[in-house]
Amino acid sequence: EPGTWTVQYRAGIGPPKSGELAAGAVAALLVPTLAGADAVHYGYVWKRNADGRWEDRANWNCINPPGGPCNPAENKGYPNLAGDEAYFNAGIYTRRLSVFIGRSDIRVAKIVLDTRFGINFSGSVFGQIILNSGLPSTPAEILTTDQAVFDQFGLTQFFVPFVNESPLLVTTGVNAQLLVHTDIGPFDHGLTVRGPGETILGRPTTYT
């Protein structure tokens, strides 16, 4: 199919030893309780040209994808429920960023990446990202936008595990690279990878 690329597997690629998860910890992480969609979901933009914790409200600006302001009573401060969207596209980033996930119950429907410097997503022993669109049969998404030039040092890397509670669609734009070091699973909702950029799996996953 035009625009759809084969996922690559490269042996031996992985995070530093200090960031590796014990095998038992991984097994324990990938069996969460399924969550339903929240009544209200928002988008959140990473607003700092700096490293930081996903769960720190000071790192995000709330946006309302349908339009209008975020209701302060419904603004959770950071993407954290099924249907929420995370945007790394503030247009202010001047270097590679590191984002740390400490919780095991972070749910998000969409992650949008727009930076030529790349981002490292890492986590604690219990840190993970649960991909849940909030709508039945609707895929969650990871989208890397087109870049003007190719930079081999500008790839975005995920060192934190994904749990797939929805079908997952990964789209990598022109001159963009995305490297997933950890598992994507365990639910059998499917993984679709599209180009024209490159998506690399650094280890076998539930879908390979």
Short description:
With 208 residues, the protein is mainly β. Helices cover 3% and strands 32% of the residues.
Please report the total strand number as a whole number: 18
Largest sheet: 7 strands, parallel
Mean of pLDDT: 81
Low-pLDDT runs: 1-39
Shape: globular
Specify the oligomeric state: single chain
Helix content: under 10%
Strand content: 25-35%
Structural class by SSE content: mainly beta
Distance between the termini: 19 Å
The secondary-structure element order is EHEEEEEEEEEEEEEEEEE
Tally of alpha and pi helices:
1
Task: Report on the architecture of this protein.
With 208 residues, the protein is mostly beta strands. The chain has one helix and 18 strands. The strands form three sheets. The protein has a seven-stranded parallel beta sheet with strand order 1-18-15-12-9-6-3, with no helix packed on it. The chain has a seven-stranded mixed beta sheet with strand order 4-2-5-8-11-14-17, with no helix packed on it.
Features:
208 residues, mainly beta, seven-stranded parallel sheet, globular, disordered N terminus
Helix-strand blueprint:
Layout: E1 8-9, H1 23-29, E2 43-46, E3 52-53, E4 60-63, E5 85-88, E6 97-101, E7 106-108, E8 110-113, E9 119-123, E10 129-131, E11 140-144, E12 156-158, E13 162-164, E14 168-172, E15 177-180, E16 184-185, E17 191-194, E18 198-201
Parallel strand pairs: 1-18, 2-5, 3-6, 5-8, 6-9, 7-10, 8-11, 9-12, 10-13, 11-14, 12-15, 13-16, 14-17, 15-18
Antiparallel strand pairs: 2-4
